[in-house]
């Protein structure tokens, strides 16, 4: 079995090394590819971490750690440029929500706000197409199980509504963090439970010196191909699956036709068109797919595709920076809405709402948005981020319910249910 082979490589790597990654293709779709990338860094391999509070990028190699800059995008761009044109060199890592120092986002404060690892020794594993492709509803969430919105969420929702009616934003992605104690198992055991419950195209495990990220994300942040074409696939609009086939199809149809869901998606598509226009050739930005419904094990989601062709003077890392953070995780307009998020949300987002994936020295890249994910720093419990897009037409009970069934499978994975 391909998956058994991957697991053994990762498990062996975690036993002997504290810098390991597995970008998991086992739950992928046709559009994302079914190949796993696994890497275990040697002592003399380079990695980078970024602390947004201190504004320090630290370069790690062997026993030496040295501050090398104050902007992780700039340092990463310079590091990738050193190996320009070499397709065997990959940088694998995550950009946390506060990774861009020029935007209003609070530092995590508990661990690094970005982690990147350089390797020339990646193991590739091709996965067969799974029966049903992860679309069968096995534990359809029940709306009635989500409970009454707590006071703190209702107050945050009300403040967002005030900001929306005041014209500060058209749409705000309101999120919150939940802490779940880690049990005695290692991160790999928790991840394996998560991948069984919630297979996804942008799944994987990243472990760097006690910081762990476990992802089961369905959303593409960006790909950049050899022809310098950029593709993003923002998700905005989500409904829960139902175990009954008729109810499930009704939920899918509602997602496809409801004016609120469609307006949420359209506003983010316009934001992504704007972001891409900053770095792409004039006239090349297009929307080849608008508001398609994609079905996963626990949710239906409304997905659009926005593409463009990079200008000759824009490099891969610069393009990723221009798009960061994903518009689906901020709202529109981006900067002003991030100010609203910073004022309304009680805690910093940390790695949640960032981007996880790889960058090749030959200019290609593929990253997913960090949602449906668990993360932890040394000595901390698992942190889980969840939320959703809020517009003037949103209802507090519906939005709270959406956050809970988005989190359900993550919680079950940590608790071993």
UniProtKB/TrEMBL annotation:
SUPFAM superfamilies: ADC synthase. Residues 153-406 form the Chorismate-utilising enzyme C-terminal domain. GO terms for cellular component: cytoplasm. It comes from the Bacteria. GO terms for biological process: 4-aminobenzoate biosynthetic process; L-tryptophan biosynthetic process. GO terms for molecular function: 4-amino-4-deoxychorismate synthase activity. InterPro entries: ADC_synthase, Anth_synth_I-like, Chorismate_C. This is Para-aminobenzoate synthetase.
């Amino acid at each position: 079995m391909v998956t058994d082979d991957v697991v053994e490589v990762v498990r062996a790597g975690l036993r002997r090394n504290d810098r390991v990654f597995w970008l998991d293709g086992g739950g992928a779709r046709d559009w994302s590819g079914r190949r796993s990338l696994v890497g275990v860094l040697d002592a003399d391999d380079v990695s980078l971490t970024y602390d947004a509070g201190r504004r320090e990028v630290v370069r790690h190699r062997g026993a030496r750690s040295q501050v090398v800059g104050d902007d992780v995008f700039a340092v990463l761009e310079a590091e990738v440029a050193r190996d320009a044109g070499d397709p065997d060199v990959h940088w694998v890592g995550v950009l946390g929500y506060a990774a861009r120092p020029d935007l209003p986002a609070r530092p995590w404060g508990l661990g690094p706000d970005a982690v990147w690892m350089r390797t020339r020794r990646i193991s590739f594993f091709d996965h067969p197409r799974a029966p049903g492709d992860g679309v069968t509803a096995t534990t359809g969430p029940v709306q009635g199980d989500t409970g009454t919105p707590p006071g703190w969420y209702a107050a945050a929702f009300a403040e967002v509504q005030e900001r929306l009616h005041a014209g500060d934003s058209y749409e705000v992605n309101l999120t919150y963090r939940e802490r779940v104690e880690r049990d005695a198992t290692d991160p790999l055991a928790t991840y394996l439970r998560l991948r069984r419950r919630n297979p996804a195209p942008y799944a994987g495990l990243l472990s760097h010196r006690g910081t762990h990220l476990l992802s089961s994300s369905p959303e593409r942040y960006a790909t950049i191909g050899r022809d310098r074409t950029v593709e993003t696939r923002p998700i905005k609009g989500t409904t829960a699956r139902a175990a009954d086939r008729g109810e499930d199809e009704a939920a899918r149809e509602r997602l496809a036709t409801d004016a609120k869901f469609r307006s949420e998606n359209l506003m983010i598509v316009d934001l992504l068109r704007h972001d891409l226009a900053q770095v792409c050739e004039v006239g090349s930005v297009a929307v080849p797919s608008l508001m398609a419904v994609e079905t996963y094990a626990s949710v239906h989601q409304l997905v659009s595709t926005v593409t463009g062709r990079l200008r000759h003077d824009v490099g891969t890392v610069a393009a990723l920076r221009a798009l960061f953070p994903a518009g689906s995780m901020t709202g529109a307009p981006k900067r002003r809405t991030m100010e609203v998020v910073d004022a309304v949300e009680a805690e910093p987002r940390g790695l949640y709402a960032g981007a996880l994936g790889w960058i090749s020295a030959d200019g290609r890249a593929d990253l997913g948005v960090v949602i449906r994910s668990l993360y932890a720093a040394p000595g901390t419990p698992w942190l889980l981020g969840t939320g959703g897009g809020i517009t003037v037409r949103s209802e507090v009970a519906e939005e709270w319910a959406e956050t809970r069934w988005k989190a359900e499978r993550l919680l079950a994975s940590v608790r071993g249910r």
